[in-house]
Amino acid sequence: MDITTSVGLIAGTIVIAVMVLLGGDLHMFISEHAIIIIFGGSIAATLIRFPLSSMLHGLPLGAKYAFTMSRSTARDLVDELARLAEIARKQGPVGLEKAETDDVFLAKGIRYVADGYDMDFIRDNLERDRDNFLMHLDEGGKIYRAIGDCAPAFGMIGTLIGMVQMFANMTDPSKLGPFMATALLATLYGALVANLFCLPIADKLHGKLLDEETNRTIIIDGILMIRDAKSPTLVREMLLAYLPEKHRHEQGEPVPA
Questions:
Q1: Are 183 and 163 within 8 A, CB to CB?
Q2: Based on the domain organization, do 26 and 131 belong to the same domain?
Q3: Residue 22 placed within a domain
Q4: What is the per-residue DSSP string for the chain?
Q5: Is residue 18 part of a domain?
Q6: pLDDT tens digits, one per residue of 148-183
Q7: In terms of domains, do 67 and 122 share one?
Q8: Structural domain that includes position 186
Q9: Among 31, 83, 130, 175, which is disulfide-ready with 185 (CB 3.0 to 4.6 Å)?
Q10: What total of structural domains would you count in the chain?
Q11: Predicted confidence band at 71 (pLDDT cuts at 50, 70, 90)?
């Protein structure tokens, strides 16, 4: 689980709740009209921007990966692939049938090598799998960003509607307060939805996309080298090129100046 996402959302919610409760009753910050304009309007505008299939794939995938961590770091994958290359060198591709890994994408590549598929099939299939996954994850990030962009705008629309209603009822002082509250709460809801939830998640998904692209590319290159019977040392050295310099050395090993 990616604890930073959960901690950030909880901390932000606590801060807002404390500020609300310090200033009065929670009930005064609840407005059905503001909720309708923010969530209804933002979702409607996002549906216009994206096809339904993209939303059905992107929203749940984005929510999942915003709150979960990758099973393996890039350095872990390099070590794992070097270990698998050692197994293949000693026992042949058949020896990989008993190899275990927690990474589903890596397990798929291992199975292809163990079953004796040719290089072109393995490369094409794994690259297609990677690209489809990254496309859906990118769609998720774009959808959350679109909602984050729309929410403040619809908050302003809700504010304008409330102002119009307020000025249209100037002769009835009892209605001025509720209409003004609706106008201000629409802006508040829009800002919270955008800046506490949607836009941070969109940025988090962009970072996860870059990490997953690197990890899955490392796996593809490593699997292809194992299929080509490259030595474990060569596999390790070739894949370490994907890592930043400070991550290319074993823990405790000095980094060259």
A1: yes
A2: no
A3: yes
A4: --HHHHHHHHHHHHHHHHHHHHTS-GGGG--HHHHIIIIIHHHHHHHHHS-HHHHHHHHHHHHHHHS---SS-HHHHHHHHHHHHHHHHHH-GGGGGG---S-HHHHHHHHHHHTT--HHHHHHHHHHHHHHHHHHHHHHHHHHHHHHHHHHHHHHHHHHHHHHHHHHTTT-HHHHHHHHHHHHHHHHHHHHIIIIIIHHHHHHHHHHHHHHHHHHHHHHHHHHHHHTT--HHHHHHHHGGGS-GGGSS-TTPPPP-
A5: yes
A6: 999 999 999 999 988 888 888 888 777 777 778 878
A7: yes
A8: 31-75+118-247
A9: 31
A10: 2
A11: low
In this structure, the answer to whether residues 238 and 142 fall within a common structural domain is: yes
Q: How many CA atoms lie within 13 A of 27 on its CB side?
A: 1
**From CA 153, how far away is CA 37, in angstroms rounded?**
10
For the chain, the farthest-separated pair of C-alpha atoms sits apart, in whole angstroms, at: 90
Which pair of tokens denotes residue 156? Answer: 């302003």
Do 25 and 64 lie in one domain? The reply is: no
* Predicted TM-score of the model (pTM): 0.81
For residue 245 the two structure tokens come to: 């310099």
Query: Are 14 and 128 in the same domain?
Result: no
**Interval 123-144: pLDDT, tens:** 999 999 999 999 988 999 999 9
Residue with tokens 């996860």: 208
Same domain, 13 and 41: no
Q: Tell me whether residue 96 is in a domain.
A: no
